[in-house]
Amino acid sequence: MIVVENLHRHFGSFRAVDGASLHIKAGSITGLIGPNGAGKTTLFNVIAGRLPPTSGRVLMSGEDITGLPPHELFHKGVLRTFQIAHEFGSMTVRENLMMVPEGQTGETLWNTWFRRGAVAAEERRIRERADEVLEFLTIRHLADERAANISGGQKKLLELGRTMMVDAKIVFLDEVGAGVNRTLLNTIGDAIVRLNQERGYTFCVIEHDMDFIARLCNPVICMAEGRVLAEGTVDEVKNDERVIEAYLGTGLKNKVVANG
């Protein structure tokens, strides 16, 4: 589905992404791991159109989408979430979901004056969709709560819910487990698996929690210093000596060898 070819993103002399190439297969939950500073989030930002690449290409189902802005990628079904949730705090959880679909009838003054019936009917459909999403994510009880008042983990669920309000094809999840307690992380994991299996979502997940990665992801890609270092099953990647040294630390590598 997504093919990244020799992608570079430089900030002056710093090469945040330095010739990364990878393939995210349709229907997969692909894990992206690596030490801090490996270039994972920058890679996401380039793929998702938030940063232009210095060089290289990004293809989606054979189409060159390199450098397309986020709103164009949104219409192609490419969505992403962030390490820090970007909710509209003064709006309710339901309202945060209802504002996601673009081009709503009620967005123009003319329609609010002269097509009130159409506006109301569409709003009902979107509200029903939002309530279905909240039910799916097991947070229906939060529908009327201001988004600013919910927990960090619930905000991550809300971000995932936004992707369900449109026809997402691939979702890039950036550290979905950051600051989330284990119970809510399991709920998030359950939702990702169900979206993948029941609705055909493709996911690429940046995460440092290896138990979470092991539960959800196959394959797993490890980055270091802006490049792809290894790819395979979670066990293959965890046991790769280059990954042990770059991601887990040389000291742990020596310990593994000593205990082997």
TrEMBL record:
Residues 2-250 form the ABC transporter domain. Keywords: ATP-binding, Nucleotide-binding, Transport. SUPFAM superfamilies: P-loop containing nucleoside triphosphate hydrolases (SSF52540). It comes from the Bacteria. Pfam families: ABC_tran, BCA_ABC_TP_C. One of its GO terms (cellular component) is plasma membrane. GO terms for molecular function: ATP binding; ATP hydrolysis activity. SMART domains: AAA. InterPro entries: AAA+_ATPase (IPR003593), ABC_AA/LPS_Transport (IPR051120), ABC_transporter-like_ATP-bd (IPR003439), ABC_transporter-like_CS (IPR017871), BCA_ABC_TP_C (IPR032823), P-loop_NTPase (IPR027417). This is ABC transporter related protein. It comes from Rhodobacter ferrooxidans. The lineage of its organism: Bacteria, Pseudomonadati, Pseudomonadota, Alphaproteobacteria, Rhodobacterales.
